[in-house]
Amino acid sequence: MNAPERVLKVINHEEPDRVPAFESAFTNNTIMEHYGIKTRALSSQIPKIGDKMLKKLEASKKILKMGMKKLYEFHRRASLDIVPSICSLFPRTVLEKGVFIDECGRVMRTELYEKDGTMILGYIEGHFKSFEDYESWEPPDPHWKARLNSFLAGRELQQEKMNNEIFSIPSTGSLMEVSWEGFGLELFSRILARPKQAKRVFDDRGKFTVELVKILAENDAQLILLWDDFGYKNGLFMSPRYYRKYIFPWLKQICDAAHKQDCKILLHSDGDLIEIFEDIINSGVDVLNPIESTTANPEYDIFKLNEKYGDKITFSGNLSPIMLAMGEISEIESMAKRLIRELAPGGGYIFGSGHSINPAIPLEKFEAMQNIKRKYGNYPIKVPN
């Protein structure tokens, strides 16, 4: 069974040959080198070219494919079934070496993890200092050819070079996270107090995302990843009533547009989402990642959530990155076994960490996690207690 078949079967709550695996981000050169991938910081090259040349490079399917090739090959070798291609949040304006503004107005910076040379992309602040700044910003165009080209480049690699051993899926920034980050949380909190301004911002993001999802689904995307953190470890970024007013009507339109073309939606959101969990399901989200295990709420627990909602949504992830970085191998193995034993039978579960694989995670602990999947992740599931 190939990776697309495996993943889609699990999302449909059916049992494939083995439990699929997914990491929302992989920034660890040490682990990639272990799998024979020679790493280099492509993102560090961004500031060395001008804005116009940057847009030309981003729109070139050939160059996009070259940039993806090593990451895709790593996923194939490590048996990580899903790998995202980037269809939004492209750099727009270079400020200085390693620092740029993306197309949603977020100031981003690449930083070097000196121990193994991993380049990490991080958020600094919002570019917009007022709502008027936002109004004067040229909105991103969902029809810009770089977006579809990125998806097509990834799919060509999947089919022509990787023999469908990985599943390349398009990804896009969505509604909440990129909206507040363009302003910064303090300014955005003031915008929320002005309903017309708040509605304008969320409507802009919603219209863009719906249209991009339509374009991707009409070009045979079978699964689309939405990057959209709704919360943090202690709860939501804003009141649940604001999510229901501004976010979920658009999220439902996004899911409806995808489902109309037989395409699924994978939502990546960190944080404690317990107050809006049923809203996420009712919007039509097919897969939720990563069910962050380090939140402050003991009720936001993947096993409790699975008992209540396991027949309505597919869960993805959950193995704590703190455990992976600092825990004992025995507890990593025990948790990995439990995830597979309790969540995988009958489909509906995609194996992975509770956030991403970062440079602090040692090779031997990543391998401990993967070895459990290799040993016990085949169907029918038989994992000892």
Please give the structural blueprint.
Layout: H1 3-11, H2 29-34, H3 51-59, H4 61-78, E1 82-86, E2 91-96, E3 99-102, E4 106-113, E5 118-126, H5 131-136, H6 145-161, E6 167-173, H7 177-183, H8 185-192, H9 195-218, E7 223-227, E8 231-232, E9 235-236, H10 240-260, E10 264-268, H11 277-283, E11 287-289, H12 302-309, E12 314-316, H13 321-326, H14 329-343, E13 349-350, H15 363-376
What is the H-and-E element order?
HHHHEEEEEHHEHHHEEEHEHEHEHHEH
Which structural class should the secondary elements be placed in? alpha/beta
Give the oligomeric state of the chains in this entry, treating copies of one chain as homo and distinct chains as hetero: single chain
Radius of gyration: 20 Å
CATH topology: TIM Barrel
List the strand order in the largest sheet.
1-6-7-10-11-12-13
Keywords:
15 helices, 4-stranded antiparallel β-sheet, TIM Barrel, alpha/beta, 7-stranded parallel β-sheet
Question: Could you explain how this protein is built, in words?
Answer:
The protein has 15 helices and 13 strands. With 385 residues, it is α/β, with parallel strands linked by helices. It has a single domain, classed as Alpha-Beta Barrel (TIM Barrel), CATH 3.20.20. A 7-stranded parallel β-sheet has the order 1-6-7-10-11-12-13. A 4-stranded antiparallel β-sheet has the order 2-3-4-5. A two-stranded antiparallel sheet has the order 8-9. The chain is globular, with a radius of gyration of 20 Å. The chain starts with a helix and ends in a 9-residue tail after the last helix. About 2% of the residues have low confidence.
